[in-house]
Amino acid sequence: MSYTVPEPKIFACTQSRALGEAIAKSYGAELGKVIISRYSDGEFQPSYEESIRGARIFVIGSTHPGPENLMEMLLMLDAAKRASARHITAVMPYFGWARQDRKDKPRVPIASKLVAKMLEAAGATRIITMDLHADQIQGFFEKPVDHLYGSTLFLPYVEQLKLDNLTIASPDMGGSKRAYAYSKALRSDVVICYKQRSKANQISHMELIGEVEGKNVVLVDDMVDTAGTLTRAADLMIERGALSVRAITTHGLLSGNAIEKIENSKLEQLIITDSIPVDTTSEKIKVLSCADLFADVMHRVHHNTSISSKFIL
Question: How far is residue 132's CA from residue 260's CA, in Å, rounded to a whole number?
Answer without folding.
Answer: 26
